[in-house]
Amino acid sequence: MTVSILVTNTKGGCGKTTIATNLAAAFANAGFATGLADVDRQKSSLGWLASRPATAAPVTGLDWRKATSKLPAGLQRLVIDAPAGVRIAHVEDLLKSADLVIVPVLASIFDERSTARFLAKLERIKPIAKGKKNLLVVANRQRTRQRSAQRLREALSELGIAPVAELGDRAVYTELAEGGLGLFDIAPGRAAAGRADWLPLLRAIEVASG
Amino acid sequence: MRAPTSDREIELKLLVDPAQLGGIADRLRDSPTAFSRQAARWLESRYFDTPDRRFARRGVALRVRRTAGLGAEADDAPSFLQTIKAGSDSHGAHTERGEWECAVDDWTPRLDLVTDKEALEKLGLVLQEELELVVASEIERNVVLVEQPVPGEPAAIIEVAFDSGRLIARPTGEGAADRVLPIAEIELELKAGPTRGLYLLLGQLRQWGRLAIGTEDKAERGFRLAAGTWPSATKASKVTLEPAMRTGEALGAILDNCLGQWLRNVRVAADGRDIEGVHQLRIAIRRSRSALSIFAAALDTAERKSWNKRLKSVITATGPARQRDVFATQLLPTIAASAPADAAPALGALAAGLEAEQSAAYEEVRRFLASDEHADLLLDWASWVALEGWQEGASETARDVLARPVVEVARELLHKRHKRVKKLGKDFAALTDAERHQVRLALKKLRYGVEFLGGLFPKKAAKRYAKAAAALQDELGLLNDQAEATALLDELAARAPAKPAAGRLRLERGIGFVLGWQAEALTHRRDAATAAWQTFIAQAPFWHATGDSA
């Protein structure tokens, strides 16, 4: 059985690909047969895979830009990177192949508003409304000590949402991504703070999918 | 039954009086079936989990064990072994589960060495830094290898481990003192050959000392010890039969399923904090007894009656506790919710009177579950089920039934039970209480029969039928609860002290209020039962339906 995770937000630039690639690397490094499906026309996830060194834990790329494809046999974990500007009908469709949804959000006013609309729509999708599939919101690129971070928490709380994790704004993501790597590909000691950020998200995924 | 493969562990765990452990080990060593004995080893184990206890929740255990010699051999180089154990599949008294082992260098668990896909799925995604030590154990282990003859089959090779030592749990929170639990147990692990061998050897060991089936492994016990949590009840798992199975095999699978439910709820019932424990324990026994009754044609009458009687002892010992649980948690709150405010002191007095009786009732549950009578019943029954005791001395007719495909026999059995309910319930609205009670008893057997055998037939029709039967049983059950409550109130009134007079008066008022409420509700209850009867009787028997049973 494959556990599939859909990473989506209609808003661009909120870090979908960063979350999708790092998540795939986390699964792959834990030993799971992992796939990364790219739905985005910009192919950012597939691009990351192309520069991934052969020595890194293997992640199988799936090109889903035109249509979803059959999963390779024995795949245990699949991360689906949905495109910006995605329509809700498309999300609904992708959700059929997913067990849970992760929505990254950023601490900028514009992002909050469009995200609020998007989240409201997501919550009306049947499997989510009925609680059959979990919706996990992640505050991405948080600068915890800045006022904007607190404002995001408040804005989400008004929507009745508590983010499952806050991922810090760290230069390491960009550096690693250039080489097709993620946080979980490097020695734990070199990425201790980043890994600590990810723990609540990974736990929430495990609880939701276990 | 399955023979062990390298990734599976088949094991029977027995609890023993520490004073008898050494004596039993000596007897076994001297027996002709023992072919190898090993020097005693000193085993230290550490069990790990994530801070949010995901392993415990998934029923998986991650352990690192250090094994060293004892005495003169204590200086030998110790070895470290990492083991992942999956939760047990639902089986009778023994456990069958996945087990993955690899050597490690020291106490640090090595997640990166876990490569088996199934093992990975059991653990889920875990980061190394999440792992924390939850519980440890220290054990002196004496091992004897036994070649157990199994009539008609190859011998079973069994590793018998005699363990004595202790579990040490570290509760979360700064400065909390360690909690320690002594261990004295015998583990029979099947290394090769048929599972039956475990039970044949068990019969031998029982002649040398008092044993009881262990219903919880060291990791489970340790985790609860560390967390200070109590066990919670589990319902029966689903019975899965294949139409082509022979009736004897199907009977074995059904009784095995009931036994699993029984074993899993013993410690929950004895603990008592989850009241569903006693309830599920009773259901397990009722299902077992119903199975004996449904499959009567395949069983020896005297043997069946004797089991029936022995199994009933569990029902008798737990009856008062369950009766009071139902009254206190179902009936009383319903009544209190609709009662006028001035009835509150009277109902409060009633609840207080019940609570005092409840602890005595649970004392009896605990006494019984810890008794030799219960331990022996479980061991005898588990052995009978595992060794298919019904085959032995079965009459020719019984043997015929046992050998036939279960789907054919199921049709006849369900038909018979259905006809009986229909006959007893004729003119349902006009039945007396006693007659309705008879319908309830017959329906119970039918319903369990449907639960056991329904899966052999087209799903939809069986489901519809089962639903209607369950709805009727619920209604009849409510009527029965009322009758039981009345009897309970009589007992309570008889035992309650006469003084102080004001207290006595409050209690009597409470009782009067409940009786009055019940009388009022009774007409409505009877109507509801009649309606449920009409729905039930309109159902077409699903076992006649032809079509794909998949």
Walkthrough of the structure:
The complex is a heterodimer of chains A (210) and B (550). Chain A has 210 residues and is α/β, with parallel strands linked by helices. Chain A has a single domain, classed as 3-Layer(aba) Sandwich (Rossmann fold), CATH 3.40.50. Chain A has eight helices and seven strands, in the order E-H-E-H-E-E-H-E-H-H-E-H-E-H-H. In chain A, strands 3-2-4-1-5-6-7 form a seven-stranded parallel beta sheet, with helices on both faces. In chain A, helix 1 packs across helix 2. The model of chain A has no long low-confidence stretch (mean pLDDT 91). By secondary structure, chain B is α+β, with helices and mostly antiparallel strands. Chain B has an eight-stranded antiparallel barrel with strand order 1-6-5-4-3-7-8-9. In chain B, strand 7 and strand 8 form a beta hairpin. In chain B, helix 6 crosses helix 9 and helix 6 runs antiparallel to helix 10. The longest helix of chain B has 38 residues. The interface between A and B is medium-sized, with 21 and 19 residues.
